[in-house]
Each structure stands twice: as structure tokens, then as C-alpha cells.
Write a structure and sequence with these properties.
- This protein has 6 helices and 4 strands.
- With 135 residues, it is an alpha+beta fold.
- It has a 4-stranded mixed beta sheet, covered by helices on one side.
Length: 135
């Protein structure tokens, strides 16, 4: 795999935090981070269910592979130099329950933090603003 595109919810504080964290990591596979539901995402992946990408993290490989939920988190970790061994473990039968519980916990936290729903998003001209990293 030569490149991954991560679709994340630009209106979710947790998602934006994780976006910035991913950008600070040393990557073995390049990551393109694109706001879910944006004009750019729709142009890049016209056949994708973009409403679903606003509900769950979605990662697309350069050959059209689509990863959602737990698999998306694992493939993001797999792309990172320091976290690839952990990703391999999380993909095993022993690691899968831990990965799934972590994703479920993150989803609950995300819902608690999240502001307006996808229908209330302000994506003027199909471009969703991404807040800068915390200072």
C-alpha cells in the first residue's frame, strides 16, 4: 500500500485532535487527511456513502480498499512507524476485543463532545474548515 486517505469529521473535536496527532507522527505510509463530507472527499470518492463517513472514521487505500470503524483505526496505526507493531497485535484475535472496545469508547466520547450534527455543518462551497492545532 502506497498511500492512505483518512476521512475524518472536521466538526468533531476528538477527530480534529487525532488528525493533528497523526500529522505529528513519523509515517511509513503517507496519509492524506480529508474532511468527511467535503467537496474534496466527494470528488475523490464519488461512489462512497458520504453520510456514513460522517458517522464513522473511514480510510481508503490507494487501490480502493475501504476500511471503517475498528479496521480504519488499525490501518491508521499500521501506517505509523512507532505504532505498526501495535497495529499488528490489534489485528490478531487476542487484540481485536481491545481494539473494538477502544473504538466504542472513542465513539461515546466523540458523541459527548460533538457539536451540531452533519445536517447543521457549515461547509460553504463544499469546503469544511479545519481548526488549527491546540496551542
Amino acid at each position: 500500500m502506497g498511500r492512505l486517505t483518512v476521512l475524518y469529521d472536521a466538526d468533531c473535536p476528538l477527530c480534529v485532535h487525532l488528525r493533528h496527532w497523526l500529522l505529528r507522527q513519523r509515517r511509513l505510509v503517507p496519509l492524506d487527511l480529508v474532511p468527511a463530507g467535503s467537496q474534496q472527499a466527494r470528488r475523490l470518492f464519488p461512489a462512497l456513502d458520504h453520510a456514513a463517513t460522517l458517522r464513522e472514521i473511514t480510510v481508503i487505500g490507494d487501490r480502493g480498499q475501504v476500511y471503517r470503524e475498528t479496521a480504519a483505526w488499525i490501518v491508521c496505526l499500521w501506517a505509523l512507524a512507532e505504532h505498526r507493531p501495535r497495529a499488528h497485535w490489534l489485528a490478531t484475535p487476542a487484540g481485536q476485543p481491545f481494539a473494538r472496545m477502544t473504538v466504542l469508547a472513542a465513539a461515546k466520547w466523540r458523541e459527548a463532545l460533538k457539536g451540531p450534527g452533519p445536517d447543521d455543518r457549515s461547509c460553504e462551497g463544499g469546503h469544511c474548515e479545519v481548526p488549527g492545532p491546540p496551542r
